[in-house]
Design goal:
single chain; 360 residues; alpha/beta; Rossmann fold; 3 domains; four-stranded parallel beta sheet
Length: 360
């Protein structure tokens, strides 16, 4: 690999609506650019035998697990990988479709919609999916680019807000794998897009399409938690979340007292994690007589186990239970991720298009 360029693109110009005009193709002849969409990943099936290798790779990432290997390896291979896959299998079975993983199906739809967008705009791009863990992986995507004589690649982790445990580990993996593909001379890596107007408009519209705000109702934003130690080391994840969520709430006109940010899916270790947990927020709301709630998890660009099960099923159960204890009836709405919504695809396309001159 030749050159690596990491950029966090500048803010968009103010937009009056979520939909903007399509970008124009560059005037000069353009070589084909490889576009690598990176996400976390998924096991091949909900079977414990397929979950085990996925978890092994996931829980071996030093960005996620910072326990010394001498201590962590016996715990991981002696206990966790012999017990967790069976427990996790039941969760995956609740969300799995006849066509496979909903996460992977949505990832492929995003890929196909972006490919259509670039083709329609007259841009010579080839879009591929590469997962940080599991398959299809980053190395396979780079190999496919190489086989198609593509020498310039733009890598975009599909996490609106950046974090050490998401964006950083994905980009580090891209650099590691790209070093083995010498025909790829340039990899332009992008980081974060929650600050962009098109993304914020797309998120606001996705909420309005599913859940209409009424005074007295509440909207909960649930993001994956991170260790407080990462924030102390300079991770800007929470700061980016607070800024982007406030902008979206301004677009929807929802007052500050009627929305809150929570953080779910803490690891079961001795580190202190960012809170509050969504369960505590939902319980508090129920105790105050709040019965109408919307929940959205915009930290995920694609619906996955954590959104379809942990948020849409588990958090709904806790809120309904808390309302029953208060003698009230819950009205809980899960708002899906942006997935392959046209406005989301356009927002992603604009991030990528702006990076094309750097990639050539």
């Amino acid at each position: 690999m030749g050159t690596d360029r990491t950029t966090q693109p500048s803010l968009d110009q103010a937009a009056s609506s979520a939909v903007s005009t399509s970008a124009q193709a560059p005037a000069k002849e353009q070589s084909t650019i490889g576009v690598l969409l990176i996400n976390t990943g998924t096991p091949a099936s909900p079977d414990p035998q397929d979950i085990k290798p996925y978890l092994a790779e996931f829980l071996s990432d030093r960005h996620l697990i910072q326990v010394p290997r001498l201590i962590w390896w016996p715990i991981l291979h002696g206990i966790i990988l012999n017990t967790r896959p069976k427990k996790t299998s039941k969760r995956y079975q609740r969300i799995w479709t006849d066509d496979g993983s909903p996460f992977l199906l949505n990832a492929y739809r995003q890929r196909d919609r972006l490919q259509d967008y670039f083709d329609h705009a007259g841009l010579s791009c080839q879009v591929r999916v590469g997962m940080r863990y599991g398959t299809p992986n980053i190395d396979e995507a780079l190999q496919a680019f190489e086989e198609n004589a593509i020498t310039h690649v733009i890598a975009l982790p599909l996490f609106p807000e950046t974090a050490f445990c998401t964006t950083k580990t994905c980009l580090d993996k891209v650099r590691e794998e790209a070093a083995h593909h010498r025909a790829i001379t340039t990899v332009t890596t992008l980081a974060g897009y929650a600050h962009r107007k098109r993304y914020q408009h797309a998120l606001a519209q996705s909420i309005a399409d599913v859940w209409d705000y009424q005074p007295g109702s509440k909207l909960l934003f649930s993001f994956h938690s991170v260790p407080l130690s990462d924030l102390a080391k300079g991770d800007t994840y929470v700061e980016e979340i607070e800024t982007s969520v406030a902008a979206v709430m301004d677009l929807l006109g929802i007052p500050e007292e009627d929305w809150e940010i929570a953080y779910h899916s803490r690891f079961e270790d001795n580190r202190r994690w960012k809170g509050p947990h969504p369960r505590s927020v939902l319980t508090s709301w129920a105790q105050k007589g709040i019965t109408r709630v919307g929940l959205v998890a915009p930290g995920f660009s694609t619906d996955c186990l954590e959104t379809l099960y942990d948020c849409a099923i588990v958090q709904k159960y806790y809120f309904e239970q808390s309302c029953r204890e208060q003698g009230t009836t819950a009205d809980f709405t899960y708002i899906p991720c942006l997935n392959d919504r046209p406005d989301h695809i356009e927002a992603l396309a604009q991030v990528i298009i702006e990076a094309i001159p750097q990639a050539q």
